[in-house]
Specification:
434 Repressor (Amino-terminal Domain), 4 domains, six-stranded mixed beta sheet, HTH_LacI, DNA-binding transcription factor activity, transcription cis-regulatory region binding, transcription, DNA-binding
Length: about 375
């Protein structure tokens, strides 16, 4: 109830436009125009709604909605005042409600195994660089290499009405029903890096086979002959592809495949030490790690044992970041260009969102670059 500031009556009060951005009132009993002193809004524990703004100004919620959406059938002065109060009350649009109304949230979901890994951080940067200018927001989830968490992330993103999803699977993921169901219902999905071959989504992958082949060939050309490989889980697709590249390089140079020189791990730091223990009796003269992090772990373990790199054992890894160039000796790596992987995956997803009828899913392979450093170069 509005009370006249002169006579104190409330029955004859009506709104009379705005004066300098403030609501003006008129008292029909004493024929007096007045405005109310502004009061700071009380601290809020919940998100401000359109109804809150309407009550604050004494207008209808539909008027507030029209003003905030830029409708021209609201006077410029009223629109400006509503927007001012909305900012004062820290109003944020309800994207889910907007999506229910318009079927558009302009939000995409991204699921990665671990945001702390520089590779995935660079992928996300590449995604952001493409989708932000197109007017899309990014909702990032990480599975922490857990299949159960990955499934929950997919369900949460679909329930949040994101318009599409980019996903790199966890190490644990071996079944893909959580992807197959939404994809079969027309939900846009693009895989990157660790992908699912069972579902016909668009995919962006590294040249795992070619990069591994180039790395092992480099080691062979340096004169190393007993080359071990520190691989990943046997069921992991990228591990199988890099192992195939390793085998093909040995075959090209007429060298036998020695099963005892193949060690499957899970990319954790202790994997490198366990592999080194397996090779203790018949030490290889070079090791190719399909994950550069394990190569760094192995380098540390070799230093602790007094084994010189590369004089007594050469090292090389797949993947690259600043640390690989700073350690001593610098680590020979394959640079996979994760930023470009993120860009390509994002472009494919936007294409799928905007042109679902003509979009044709395909696998896109991005080649990396061999970077030779001191850990493998013979002096």
């Amino acid at each position: 109830m509005i009370e006249c500031t002169r006579c104190g009556r409330v029955e004859g009060i009506k709104r009379a436009g705005f004066v300098r951005g403030q609501q003006r009132y008129f008292c029909r009993d004493c024929r007096y125009y007045f405005v109310l002193e502004k009061q700071a809004p009380a601290p809020r524990r919940r998100q401000t709604t359109i109804i809150d703004i309407a009550r604050h100004l004494g207008v209808s919620p539909s008027t507030v909605s029209k003003a905030l959406s830029g409708r021209q059938d609201i006077s410029p002065r009223t629109r400006e005042e509503i927007r001012r109060v909305a900012a004062e009350l820290q109003y944020q649009p309800n994207l889910l409600a907007q999506g229910l109304t318009s079927s558009k949230t302009f939000t995409i979901g991204v699921i990665i195994p671990n945001i702390e890994r520089p590779f995935f951080a660079s992928v996300v940067s590449g995604i952001q660089q493409v989708v932000s200018p197109a007017g899309y927001r990014v909702m990032i989830c990480q599975s922490n290499e857990s299949h159960a968490t990955e499934v929950a992330n997919v369900q949460a993103l679909v329930a949040s009405r994101v318009e599409g999803m980019l996903i790199c699977h966890s190490i644990e993921t071996e079944t893909f029903d959580h992807i197959a169901r939404p994809f079969a219902n027309g939900f846009p999905i693009v895989h990157f890096d660790r992908v699912c071959e069972e579902i016909a989504t668009a995919k962006v992958i590294q040249d795992d086979f070619g990069g591994a082949f180039a790395m092992v060939e480099h080691l062979l050309q340096q004169g190393y002959r007993r080359i071990a490989i520190l691989a990943g889980p046997e069921k992991l697709l990228i591990s199988r592809r890099r192992l195939a590249g390793y085998q093909a390089a040995l075959e090209k140079y007429g060298l036998p495949l020695e099963e005892e020189l193949i060690y499957h791990g899970d990319f954790r730091p202790e994997t490198a030490r366990r592999a080194l223990e397996q090779w203790e009796n018949q030490r290889p003269d070079a090791v190719f790690c399909i994950h550069y992090g394990n190569a760094i772990d192995l380098l540390q373990a070799l230093h602790e044992r007094g084994i010189r790199v590369p004089e007594e054992m050469a090292l090389a890894g797949f993947g690259d970041e600043l640390l690989t160039a700073l350690i001593e000796p610098g680590l020979t790596t394959i640079q996979p260009y994760p930023f470009q992987i993120g860009q390509k995956a994002a472009r494919l997803l936007l294409e799928q969102i905007h042109h679902p009828e003509s979009f044709v899913p395909a696998t896109h392979v991005l080649k990396g670059e061999l970077i030779v450093r001191g850990s493998s170069r013979k002096k």
